[in-house]
Amino acid sequence: MGGDHGTHVTVPAALKFLKAHPEVNVVLVGLQDAIEAELKARHAKTGPRLRIHHASEVVAMDEPPQLALKNKKDSSMRVAINLVKSGEAHACVSAGNTGALMATARFVLKTLAGIERPAIAKLMPTMRGTSCVLDLGANVDCSPEQLYQFAVMGSALYGALNHNERPSVGLLNIGSEDIKGNETVKAAGELLKASRLNFYGNVEGNDIYKGTVDVVVCDGFTGNVALKTSEGLAKMLTEFLKEEFFKSWWRKLIAVVAMPVLMSFRHRMDTRRYNGASLLGLRGIVVKSHGGADKLAFYYAMEQALEEASSGVLSKISETMSGHAAASADPLEI
Amino acid sequence: MGGDHGTHVTVPAALKFLKAHPEVNVVLVGLQDAIEAELKARHAKTGPRLRIHHASEVVAMDEPPQLALKNKKDSSMRVAINLVKSGEAHACVSAGNTGALMATARFVLKTLAGIERPAIAKLMPTMRGTSCVLDLGANVDCSPEQLYQFAVMGSALYGALNHNERPSVGLLNIGSEDIKGNETVKAAGELLKASRLNFYGNVEGNDIYKGTVDVVVCDGFTGNVALKTSEGLAKMLTEFLKEEFFKSWWRKLIAVVAMPVLMSFRHRMDTRRYNGASLLGLRGIVVKSHGGADKLAFYYAMEQALEEASSGVLSKISETMSGHAAASADPLEI
């Protein structure tokens, strides 16, 4: 039900997803009437692979998370997360209110052992492939221990999705030297150095897109600013490029000739392909789609959920965390 | 002497600057022999508008700022800043070690009344023109009062350069609502609301390039990450665009046809034009050029210094700060 377009986006995306993945079933959670109307408009029907699970309430995009959690016990996002909790669903995908989704997921699913707080993680395109960046906004202030936990979570996600046993981890900072940054980041660096993770060291903002490391760890404030600044810059550059090609009839003609190149460039930097953000650290898989996502973008968020569900990322996090606990208990082993 | 290319960049940039601004004189500060050799190679001579001021030491790009400050009293950056202090020069431009430049400038020039710490400010291109963003890395941890002072400094700089009496100020945050962000940012928001500045409210990362406000205020950690992330993304996108145009001989042909458009796009997003970063809040004008700057980029940093020196930005900051002090002393006036 969530996002700027509700079922107009989520339902067609689900139909596309069902076609692409014949081994997966989909449960549409929300207002039965709205979902049925959307299905009908798309000439689609429920069946063994597609069912509707009614939920009588909807969390508004601007609703305070704590109020949504307290008052809307039959909201679509709450019910969908309940399905994950009960094991009826392997993952939940939502385009709804991020804060409410995080608060509800945390309340219903709880965090994995050793994880204090979940984080929002995303795969971002880089010059060398993709990197996982977290936290992107769930935790404004983070302790060094939390940043370490993010590193464990990000490594597990990146490793599971890319079949990489030891992804490299970088700590986002404002210089590569150990002495740079604030006290929290410095202490997190020490924890990471002493850990069994493949810690590269400090990285800077430009390293995200350079692809210097597989996993970039930062607090949610910094990560959110980096992500949104990137969105803004990409939009501005696309706009400028378009403007340059529309300045005269002659240039428009050139644009027509260059169209195939421009289109493949556009496809390559299409942020819709990187839409799914994982709520990591929970005892269940929850993927957040951008609220403004269109059908294709929401489809990619569902793909992200499927990949996570198939790759055993949760057990990977638990393993590392329990290994960490064992290591801490036995100082000789460090 | 500073930057990755030393006099090979600074000297030709200075020569270009002298030609473009017949009303301005330039003092080249550094190792006399190196500067003379570079001038000779460029068939240029010293004269009434161009003189050399010898300084026997050079601060290395990776030298710890405090050591440079303590041990290199005759470094080119120290001597250049001394010239600003004594009034012999109206501004200092350096491509050298940022930390050392900041530490030296702060030690020699001192901060303006009411300003606790200087900040690094830069004009960034936006969809609506330019915005001033600060701090970009001088202050890792900032108090709400310091963020307020950055807002005063940024407003003065933007206002002076753009002849705008009341530039709008945004506080960089991870959501537009007042309740978002950490305690420091929330408290800074309260200070800004109560101030005489034209405070817009919270802005997010994407607002920087949208040009939502004239001045964007943040701590140096966040600002540095936003700036460097932008650099990385712009580089990646340019690289991708180039790759797309080089994929086949047919596409290369299209690139030739589209060249005028691509070149004007490139010019428009040319970061060299935004190279100068101001060390704001000092009793003197110091502009930092990117260490990797080429001749044109360093030239633009000199332009930035000239504009600052001609626009009375320092007295503007002092005025606002003394107005603020008066307002604080008289509660009825707020």
From TrEMBL, chains A, B:
<dbReference type="GO" id="GO:0043811">
    <property type="term" value="F:phosphate:acyl-[acyl carrier protein] acyltransferase activity"/>
</dbReference>
<comment type="subunit">
    <text>Homodimer. Probably interacts with PlsY.</text>
</comment>
<keyword id="KW-0443">Lipid metabolism</keyword>
<keyword id="KW-1208">Phospholipid metabolism</keyword>
<comment type="function">
    <text>Catalyzes the reversible formation of acyl-phosphate (acyl-PO(4)) from acyl-[acyl-carrier-protein] (acyl-ACP). This enzyme utilizes acyl-ACP as fatty acyl donor, but not acyl-CoA.</text>
</comment>
<keyword id="KW-0808">Transferase</keyword>
<keyword id="KW-0963">Cytoplasm</keyword>
<dbReference type="GO" id="GO:0006633">
    <property type="term" value="P:fatty acid biosynthetic process"/>
</dbReference>
<keyword id="KW-0444">Lipid biosynthesis</keyword>
<dbReference type="InterPro" id="IPR012281">
    <property type="entry name" value="Phospholipid_synth_PlsX-like"/>
</dbReference>
<dbReference type="InterPro" id="IPR003664">
    <property type="entry name" value="FA_synthesis"/>
</dbReference>
<comment type="pathway">
    <text>Lipid metabolism; phospholipid metabolism.</text>
</comment>
<protein>
    <recommendedName>
        <fullName>Phosphate acyltransferase</fullName>
        <ecNumber>2.3.1.274</ecNumber>
    </recommendedName>
</protein>
<dbReference type="GO" id="GO:0005737">
    <property type="term" value="C:cytoplasm"/>
</dbReference>
<dbReference type="Pfam" id="PF02504">
    <property type="entry name" value="FA_synthesis"/>
</dbReference>
<keyword id="KW-0012">Acyltransferase</keyword>
<comment type="similarity">
    <text>Belongs to the PlsX family.</text>
</comment>
<keyword id="KW-0594">Phospholipid biosynthesis</keyword>
<dbReference type="GO" id="GO:0008654">
    <property type="term" value="P:phospholipid biosynthetic process"/>
</dbReference>
